[in-house]
Amino acid sequence: GPCTECSCASGKDPDKDPSHTKKKEKGDQLCVPKIFFGTRTHKQISQISRELKRTAYSCVPMTILSSRDYTCIHPVVSNSSNRNEMCVELLEGKHGRSCSFYHGVHKLSEQHSLQPGSGLYQAWDIEDLVRLGRKLRACPYFAARELMVGADIVFCPYNYLLDPQIRDSMDINLKDQVVILDEAHNIEDCARESVSYGVTESQLRAAREELDFMVSNSIRQKHHEPLRAVCCSLI
């Protein structure tokens, strides 16, 4: 039957929507599963959204999740090497400053060209979103996350789906959703990367010196001695 009550309905005429017969019933609510499409790199996402634009599904509500490296437009934060920390500090108003782009998010996520059924809507990529964000002085990073709520298809790099910490911070819930992994033979490398961490020899030496100081000053010795031993063996 028609799914006008569906909380994630996209505003299309349900009778003309071929997928409406497959929608799951949850009590009285009908819900369409989202498709999470994972790719190896951000560059592949733009190729796929270009292909999507050429199909009959160009008007399907979508979003692209990516890092602040690609989507931050704040003049200071975007040029910083620790964008994530600076962004969080601004949003928390730690130094009495805030981010005007973040406060303009709704201007971007409610844009006609990003809303299906508007006549202007078609598949877009990160560059389109960033261009529009600059024009409206609104944050593309948080707008893309807001658009996820109503999206039928969500594009993102693999690690957003594989890494539990990223999933959690991005509010990605994969239960009862459809997951497509492009070029899935790369998954093993990606899984390894998401639980790996790289350190330089100089970082290890600095850590050992600090741990030496802790141990010689009797600061939580029993915790710091095994860590110092690990540093020494790695060096």
Automatic annotation (TrEMBL):
Single Gene Ontology MF annotation: DNA helicase activity
Single GO cellular component term: nucleus
Gene3D superfamilies in the cross-refs: P-loop containing nucleotide triphosphate hydrolases
InterPro entries, A to Z: DinG/Rad3-like, Helic_SF1/SF2_ATP-bd_DinG/Rad3, Helicase-like_DEXD_c2, P-loop_NTPase, RAD3-like_helicase_DEAD
Organism classification: Eukaryota, Metazoa, Chordata, Craniata, Vertebrata
SMART domains, per database record: DEXDc2 (SM00488)
Protein name: FANCJ protein
Region of interest (Disordered), ranges: 1-26
Gene: Brip1
Source species of the chain: Setophaga kirtlandii (Kirtland's warbler)
Positions with biased composition (Basic and acidic residues): 12-26
